[in-house]
Every structure is written in structure tokens, then in C-alpha cells.
């Protein structure tokens, strides 16, 4: 496979080059040198927000009931449709919120940005603006008390517990240092931020209405399968990147960090499970080593690149990856 010209491959020497675009871009997500000093206070007692426990608990009960209805009452096409919508919304998070906006690993033309923001809204992981802020903070202070979903505090906390707990004081304090000003000039992101709730309700209402309109599914079946079941399933798949990917797998690129490589997770999260590589080279649009792994998300970025909708794709050269692997892997 040849690398198209609009892909920028960085070499080890670029890291120290004053003119290289890479170091300044790394400001968005690279690990803060003081992060190791923050560490994790294992005696810190988290404060549970009970109304959020009730909210996520109810959502999951409805999700399980949605699975039951999907298996017993729904048309097969409704179940397939729900999965397809879930995967598409996952692309909104992976390709849009994560690789495009949080890490600036490529640039995108407005039509592509609008499409990704729509898919991200359907996913329902809250506004892209705050998602990016939290994710940049996660990379900057990985697995310390300043990381919103610090996996050192346990699997459950990094999976969903952090969403139902009061923020650690360090998350608040260091959160103020996270720069998201670049998002303020992006019309698609700011539109979503301004009208998030009505947009979310409108788009998901259309998602639920399609099976009723097109193949006479009952409204109740469609609500439970294409909303509650789909949302609960893909919510947990997405959250596995914060939990599972920081607990299980190999560490060929940096053995000193918790994030690890997982083929199974990458299959489920359409390409975001090679997490040891991603935390080592967060600005690489492939989120995986070239030639070793390939995902639907990477395929869609490459495809958009071919059609001129995505450009300036950044990736690490083979030599850069090998050098880093020998040094820290
Ligand atoms: Zn991570
Ligand atoms: Zn990331």
C-alpha cells in the first residue's frame, strides 16, 4: 500500500526540529511533564451523585429490556438497523470528536465536519466541545488524579463511575489549563454546543421513526431497540476505551504507561483499541501502527482523503515507531 502525498509522515528528527508542525500540535494532547508528580491519592473518597446513578441505572435497565424486545419482538432488519446506527455514531466519536477534533490528526472540509458532528450528536456522549476538553485532559494527565477517568482508581471508576461522581479537585484545577480555543472557530462544533439538546432529540427521533416509516416496525419496538438498546450497548463499548484499554493487553510501544493494545476491543470500538500505540503517538490519524492494524475509522479517513474531504493526515514513520519501541517498549 502506498502512502498518498497528502499524508504527512513525521520522522524522529522532526520532534526536535523548530520548524516542524508536530511539536506545536502536540500541545493539544501530549503528556504534561508534571503529571507524574500528581499521581493518585488512593485514600481519596469519591462523592457519588445519586441522581446520576439513578439516570444511568434506569438507562441500562431500559437498554436490557431493549435487548429483550430486539431478540423476541422486533423485525430482524430493526436489529441490524440499530447496530448500523450504533456503528455510524461510533464513527462520529472516533473520526470526529477523537481523531479530528481532540488530536487534530487530520484536517477536514466543512461538509465532512458537519456529517461527523451529526453522527457524534446521535451517539449522545455530550457535546463535542466538552468531550474534547476531557479527552485532551486525559492524555495530558493520563491515569493521575487530574485525569477525569483515572484508571488507577479502578475499572468501574474509569468505565462509568467517573460520570456518576463529583470531579476530583485535581480534575477541576488542571482542567482550567486545557486549551480548547481552536474549537471556538469551528462553526459545526459551536452550533452543536449551542443547540445540543434539541439537536439530540430531533436526530434521535428521526432514527427511531425510520423503522416505523420504512418497514412498519411498531413504535415501541423501535424506541427500545434503536434507541435504548443501541445507546446502552454503544455507550459501554465506547467507555471500554477508558477502562478495558487501560487494564488488559500488550505494551509494545511504551511499557511505562497503563494503556495497552487489544485486538478484540479494537474490533468492537472500530479501531480505538490499540491504545498503547495511541497514547504513544496520539497525533497519528490511524491510531495504530502502519501495516499492522487497519480499522473502519482509518479506512473512512483514507477514503475522505481520496475525495479531498480530509487532508493533512499526520502519521509516524516506521523508523520513528521502531526507535520509540526499542527505547520504551
Ligand atoms: Zn486512554
Ligand atoms: Zn486520544
UniProtKB/TrEMBL annotation:
GO molecular function: iron ion binding; stearoyl-CoA 9-desaturase activity
An individual GO BP term: unsaturated fatty acid biosynthetic process
Cell compartment(s), UniProt: Membrane
Keywords associated with the record: Fatty acid biosynthesis, Fatty acid metabolism, Iron, Lipid biosynthesis, Lipid metabolism, Membrane, Oxidoreductase, Transmembrane, Transmembrane helix
The keyword Transmembrane appears for this protein: yes
Occurrences of domain Fatty acid desaturase (ranges): 78-282
GO-annotated cellular components: endoplasmic reticulum membrane
UniProt-listed InterPro entries: Acyl-CoA_DS (IPR015876), FA_desaturase_dom (IPR005804)
Cofactor(s) the record lists: Fe(2+)
Domain notes: The histidine box domains are involved in binding the catalytic metal ions.
Membership in a protein family: Belongs to the fatty acid desaturase type 1 family.
Name of protein: Fatty acid desaturase domain-containing protein
